[in-house]
Amino acid sequence: MPGRERLDAVVVGAGPNGLSAAIALARAGRSVQLVEAAPTVGGGCRSAELTLPGFVHDVCSAVYPIGRASPFFLSLPLARHGLRWIEPDVPLAHPLDDGAALLTHDLYETARRLGPDANAYLDLVGPTVRNWHLIINELTGPLRIPCVGPRKLLAAAQFGLRAMLPVTTIARRFGTPAARALLAGCGAHSMLDLSAAGTGTFGLIFLASAHTVGWPIVAGGAGRLTGALASCLVELGGKIAFNCPVTTLDALPAHRAALLDVTPRQVLEMASERLARRAGGRAYMGQLRRYRYGPGAFKIDVALDGPIPWRDAQVLRAGTVHVGGTLEEIEAGEAEVAAGRVPQRPFVLVAQQSLFDPSRAPAGRHTAWAYCHVPNGSTVDMTDRMIAQIERFAPGFRDRILEIHRTGPADLHAYDANYIGGDIGGGSAELSQLFFRPVVRLDPYRTPDPAILLCSASTPPGAGVHGLCGWYAARSALRGVLGG
Prior knowledge:
The protein is of the alpha/beta class. The chain has helices spanning 16-27, 65-69, 71-74, 107-113, 118-130, 132-138, 150-163, 167-170, 177-187, 199-212, 223-235, 264-276, 281-289, 327-338, 383-393, 409-415, 468-479; strands spanning 7-12, 32-35, 47-48, 57-58, 85-86, 90-96, 99-103, 217-218, 239-241, 255-260, 296-304, 318-323, 348-351, 366-374, 401-407, 452-454. The two termini are 28 Å apart.
């Protein structure tokens, strides 16, 4: 493996969090080498021609509200390195049998569209919108008391009390199917049963993000985002080694600190011998073994000979579409997954990037990106069930399909070792692991060996393309083993 000199840090894994950790350390003047098993950077943020020539698909992640809001990404000159956000006219549409609910950029317009639920929606989402910067800057990351005045502490407490509730409890304030469906679809990003405590966090954050930062896509494909991060790292003097799978830390170049963008299972594989020699190391490894992974994902990428023929044409204004019907239907499907069963009518997340980014497909043609939740490690092909759900709200969708690329849980795991059993979130987001992940520690990024840190989505604030796990881990390293 390249690199003979003793480096300040080696970062294992070139996903968004590994890249962010390396950038933060390089920006602090430390020598850094990023080590990646694949031939390119990206992890869950890559793009490729998966179906037919000229059709650019996002391999994993596709839409980035929290990425645009990330205080770390905002601190970087990513536009100069090739990143350009595209903001669809409408962040989210949720088709129903008698029309569609739209989550628009304007808080009050969205509320007006909900008719009798307008005031209830403003009461629920308005405080999170008004306190957005506090929530993103102070409440995402390791659990801590915000360093703000009494008024903002009150706002944080108000958000927290609502966010800890189940989506099904919060939904009781709404009477219309449209309002309840919008909340359910956003809450379902948790990949949990909607009756689970803490799912309200996802519902509130995703609803409010539409009114604050939008739900943008990346011009040219998701890979342009991680490409910009890699370019930024190289400009700062960081090095990247490709095609270098890591099974043991002993194979790494000499270093003062190793930051691992991997999940607990790989930490145990790479570092057990070193951790076992440390005080508390065996107990720590025992907690890592008990870490719980979440449901898997089944994804299809579709090349189309025209746009998706939604029954309600307003849905064509949206970059993201939640397909699953009413709250009750989505709740039933997600409960099936949580119980280890494959739903007959899955909740399907759809992105239609080519409507807003013509570089994604040949002229007159289009792409569709879609995935649903399945039990971890499921081997069931969900293609027909997903197509049937979309066809329910877009009659004729099946007839427009030119080619389909399928990716099941085993394929996801083979593509990225962090996707254990198809879990794209780095571990379950259940309440006990929402803030304290992967173990209960004041500094969740540190291990019993001060020279080994975690910087993956298995640490706070968890899943998503935002780089915050890597940023916080780098700050922890700079306070500790790389301080001074």
